[in-house]
Amino acid sequence: MEQDVRVLTEMVKKESAFVDRVLAEVGKVVVGQREMLERILIALLCRGHVLIEGVPGLGKTLTVRTVADVLNATFSRVQFTPDLLPADLTGTQIYRPQTGEFKVKKGPIFASVVLADEVNRAPAKVQSALLEAMQERQVTIGDQTYPLPEPFLVLATQNPIEQEGTYPLPEAQIDRFMLKVRVTYPTREEEQDIMERMSLSLEPDVEKVLSLEELTRARSMMSEIYMDDKVKQYIIDLVFATRHPEEGTVAGLRDYIRFGASPRASIFLNEAARAHAFLRHRGYVIPEDVKAVGMDVLRHRIILSYEAEAENLTAEDILQRLFDSVPVP
């Protein structure tokens, strides 16, 4: 088994060579935000989608657009507003008087990388249309069904501080996002670097360093990456700890969690841990991979109780206690 893992690691090192090139190219334009960039790559490898939460001006749109450029993928940005209609996103049929026929006009959802800016500003019908496209990877216009391009990655952003005029996503819809990433402010050094770069008149060009063939081969490696049964049980222990915090080693959290994580959490935590190992050029998963992505996979999948809200506890506070309490193999 040890020899098989060593051979697998060599294969992963070869197939994951593009990761460093992608990070270097995006780094020409984007300062910092390494964690957000890695989570986008994890979602891309696992065919998942990402919900990005952060205050305005932290480079979310710039990062996503640069990733699309590096991937040589089509990119579209949709600004979600209260008057947006589902047809504005998916497309519609247009009547042509000259021919007496209807012609389909595809919407901005037909792109490989779709940035849904301020997704919580659109009404429920538009959010449902987006999430249906994410789940089914196809769109129905009229009586025809059209497949979405491959790869297909949705990155939705929401502003945590401005809640007036918003339509918060229901828990069942948020659960469809593989990861929820919190974007934080840059460090002092990064801030100075940003100031200096933005004072330049020309934005640096990035090279297209990841082909569809490389991405397809990398995706096929995900299921091959070795995960020991003890690590699998660790994932299950974490997920079950959110559902039954009164059992096992996690004490004092029973009154704070109203609903725990769904089975999607186990599926996505397993896939994300494998992808994280791939980004580290390893052919095997270690518990640190699970911990690294665990917060982003679980933070939007637990529903806190009124007691937790009364004590100003966040999902991150509760999950940190879980990670500290559940035994690591």
Overall description:
The two termini are 19 Å apart. A hairpin with a 2-residue loop joins β6 (138-141) and β7 (144-147). A five-stranded parallel beta sheet has the order 2-5-8-1-9. Strands 3-4 form a two-stranded antiparallel ribbon. α3 (34-46) packs across α11 (263-279) and α10 (229-243) crosses α11 (263-279). 36% of the residues are buried. It has helices at residues 2-15, 17-27, 34-46, 60-71, 86-90, 124-136, 171-174, 188-198, 212-221, 229-243, 263-279, 287-298, 306-310, 315-325, and strands at 50-53, 75-79, 91-96, 101-106, 113-117, 138-141, 144-147, 153-158, 179-182, 257-259, 303-304. The longest helix has 17 residues, at 263-279. It has 329 residues and is of the alpha/beta class. Helix content is 47%, strand content 15%.
Tally the helices: what do you get? 14
C-alpha-based Rg, rounded: 21 Å
Protein structure class: alpha/beta
Mean pLDDT: 82
- Uncertain segments: none
- Number-wise, the strands total 11
| Strand adjacency order, main sheet | 2-5-8-1-9
| Percentage of residues in helical conformation | 40-55%
Per the principal axes of the C-alpha atoms, what is the gross shape? Answer: globular
Helix and strand element order: HHHEHEHEEEHEEEHEHHHEHHEHH
**Beta-strand content estimate:** 5-15%
Biggest sheet record: 5 strands, parallel
Distance between the termini: 19 Å
